[in-house]
User: Which sequence fits this backbone?
């Protein structure tokens, strides 16, 4: 077995371990990851949507549906990666055991990324099916949505793993959700366009990853493709490459001292 084969084999072993662990509690995991976005879709899309007829020229529920799909992918990855990685590193010593397997830190990180890409694809695709059943999918371009979902899984798992590798207690994980994830959820174009916000706030929002994922997913689901999506795709890929490498050094420092 050559070096590349060994590297892939190690990453797949980490993926397999996570999958077998998830199978034991998949029912509660599905309920947790779908409960909030589905509630938001029903309460806001059809409830508030009865009073807010359109948003950005489309029915309100059609506008927020794709945005909540992107949120589903983000939450499924972020919550799992932060808390599970923290526990594997600080509570049950799973990462330490993997190092003695022996696996390398890049193999562990790659395996985690594969797993989170799978979770993003799974939960995002099922939510897309819900949108389809509700008549909220308006273009065959929606068939392409699984591709950004896969990248989204890696994109959000990088920062989450970095946070988990640096946190010294569970409370520090909540800082990430309160100061980063929740503001992105509220202000990344999920519920309203950002065009009327102050310019300074707009400039900050366009630096956030969820904003670009929402743009891409909404364009594919509604069939509103434009040249501006090229910038969103480039930004997503660049952000993913940058943050996919950062956790390796931090995790290696924790595991090897």
Assistant:
């Amino acid at each position: 077995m050559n070096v590349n084969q060994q590297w892939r084999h190690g990453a797949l072993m980490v993926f397999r371990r996570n999958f077998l662990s998830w199978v034991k509690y998949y029912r509660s995991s599905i309920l947790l990851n779908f409960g909030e976005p589905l509630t938001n879709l029903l309460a806001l899309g059809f409830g508030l949507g009865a009073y807010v007829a359109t948003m950005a020229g489309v029915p309100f529920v059609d506008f927020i549906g794709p945005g909540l799909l992107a949120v589903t992918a983000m939450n499924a990855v972020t919550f799992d990666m932060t808390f599970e990685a923290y526990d594997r590193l600080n509570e049950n010593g799973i990462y330490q055991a993997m190092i003695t397997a022996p696996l390398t830190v890049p193999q562990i990180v790659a395996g985690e990324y594969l797993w989170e890409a799978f979770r993003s694809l799974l939960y995002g695709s099922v939510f897309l099916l819900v949108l389809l059943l509700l008549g909220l999918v308006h273009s065959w371009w929606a068939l392409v949505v699984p591709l950004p979902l896969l990248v989204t899984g890696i994109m959000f798992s990088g920062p989450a793993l970095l946070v988990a590798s640096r946190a010294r207690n569970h409370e520090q994980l909540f800082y990430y959700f309160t100061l980063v994830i929740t503001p992105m959820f509220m202000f990344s174009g999920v519920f309203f366009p950002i065009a009327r916000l102050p310019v300074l706030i707009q400039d900050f929002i366009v630096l956030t990853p969820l904003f670009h994922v929402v743009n891409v997913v909404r364009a594919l689901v509604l069939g509103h493709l434009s040249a501006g999506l090229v910038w969103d795709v480039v930004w997503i890929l660049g952000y993913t490459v940058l943050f996919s490498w950062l956790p390796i050094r931090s995790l290696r420092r924790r595991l090897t001292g």
Q: What stands out?
A: Residues 60-90 form the longest helix (31 residues).
